[in-house]
Amino acid sequence: MPKQDSRDLRATLLQKAIELLAEPQAVAVPSLRSIARACEVAPSAVYWHFPSEADLRSAVLDAEYADLVASVENALDHRPPDSDALEVAGEAYVNWGLSHPGAYQLLFESADPLPETRAENGPRLQRRIVELAVSVDAEDPFSAALLLWTVWHGLVSLRLHKTEWNWGMTPSQANHRLLNALKTT
After folding, report:
1. In the chain, helix, strand, coil percent, each to 5?
2. What is the pLDDT of residue 93?
3. Which class for 86: exposed (0-12), middle (13-18), buried (19 or more C-beta within 10 A)?
4. What gap in Å lies between CA 25 and CA 150, rounded to an integer?
5. Does the residue 156 lie in any domain?
6. What are the two backbone dihedrals, phi and then psi, of residue 133, each rounded to the nearest 5 degrees?
7. Domain encompassing residue 112
């Protein structure tokens, strides 16, 4: 390989890094060894229950996604009668994401597909949001639900990653304003 000038190598390295970022990146689960250290057990104890990181990742995704679904459903099931169901669902979703940042990133900001084991919870949450989205667009509630989910995801993701910004409103206020804007369009 011919010797490169350090400026040329820097430019080549930068370009290759940019090219690699063109593909979504995985979000890592803590290693089995780091979990063993945190639990103060031997690594073999972790491997007994989770033979691979893929097994651990799947179990984490299952548990966290089920918890998200339960949080949203619980909020909807116990909402005051005069409250807006979409606002309640959005607030529960946003609050869960902000209080579980690592899990949220693993679930929704990773290139890795959600394994099939989430099939039971996935459609349940999607159906619930589609049912609620009828109030936004009765003719195409599925598209409205995807738009709502996109809005809630953006709210969570930006607040997780741009903590230095002055938002000028709480997540609840932001959810309220966003839903009002969607309903008036």
Report:
1. 70, 0, 30
2. 95
3. buried
4. 19
5. yes
6. -70, -10
7. 53-183
Domain count, the chain: 1
Query: Does 143 or 118 have the greater pLDDT score?
Result: 143
C-alpha 158 chain-centroid distance: 11
* CA-closest candidate to residue 128, choices 76, 63, 66: 76
DSSP 19-62: HHTTS----PPPPHHHHHHHHTS-HHHHHHH-SSHHHHHHHHHH
d(CA 135, CA 143): 12
Is residue 142 included in any domain, yes or no?
yes
Give the integer Cα–Cα distance in Å for 185 and 179.
10
pLDDT in tens, 76-131: 999 999 999 999 999 999 999 999 998 898 888 876 666 555 666 677 788 888 88
What average pLDDT does the segment 141-152 reach? Answer: 89
Report yes or no on 31 lying in a domain.
no
Residue 3 forms part of a structural domain = no
CB 27 within 8 A of CB 105: yes
Q: What is the per-residue pLDDT for 15? A: 83
- The CATH number assigned to the domain holding 161 equals 1.10.357.10
